[in-house]
Amino acid sequence: MSLPEEARLNETDGIYLRRAIALADKARERGNRPFGALIVGAGGKVLAEATNANGESGDCTAHAELSAIRLASPLFTREELSAATLYSSSEPCVMCAGAIFWSAIGRVIYGIDAERLRVFRGERLDQKDAELSCRDVFNTSSHAIECIGPALIEEASTSHQGAWKV
Ligand SMILES: [Zn+2]
């Protein structure tokens, strides 16, 4: 299991990561998988935020991180996004890690890691993820992508308790 990385968070990172976790709870209340994400610019401005919308939309790609990137990408320059941080309630999947790469976002902070999340996801095939770490994707990037996580694991875990057994 990966060790918690709270020590690497700056003073505002915790606030935004908790916002991502709150968005995950909001997603769950609406009948979606419990995931949330937001993108925060260098000056602390929230550029975009999104919840998972799998349940509401029927779109299997409606992950929170990908949706937040789709909102921010047309509105902000590559330079602005490279200076931004994406906060996600959980470790980005391989699809979202790819979208983070294409967006040029330079920093990623997540709550619960994929390994711990698998305990909640259970054994159903349609709930299993591809076992490739977001860092595996980021490490192949031609530009640097700083990645911090897992962090606030206990808080990020509460969104998933009892959410995957249906
Ligand atoms: Zn994803």
Automatic annotation (TrEMBL):
<protein>
    <submittedName>
        <fullName>Nucleoside deaminase</fullName>
    </submittedName>
</protein>
<feature type="domain" description="CMP/dCMP-type deaminase">
    <location>
        <begin position="11"/>
        <end position="125"/>
    </location>
</feature>
<dbReference type="GO" id="GO:0002100">
    <property type="term" value="P:tRNA wobble adenosine to inosine editing"/>
</dbReference>
<keyword id="KW-0862">Zinc</keyword>
<dbReference type="Pfam" id="PF00383">
    <property type="entry name" value="dCMP_cyt_deam_1"/>
</dbReference>
<dbReference type="InterPro" id="IPR016192">
    <property type="entry name" value="APOBEC/CMP_deaminase_Zn-bd"/>
</dbReference>
<dbReference type="GO" id="GO:0052717">
    <property type="term" value="F:tRNA-specific adenosine-34 deaminase activity"/>
</dbReference>
<dbReference type="InterPro" id="IPR002125">
    <property type="entry name" value="CMP_dCMP_dom"/>
</dbReference>
<dbReference type="InterPro" id="IPR016193">
    <property type="entry name" value="Cytidine_deaminase-like"/>
</dbReference>
<keyword id="KW-0479">Metal-binding</keyword>
<dbReference type="GO" id="GO:0008270">
    <property type="term" value="F:zinc ion binding"/>
</dbReference>
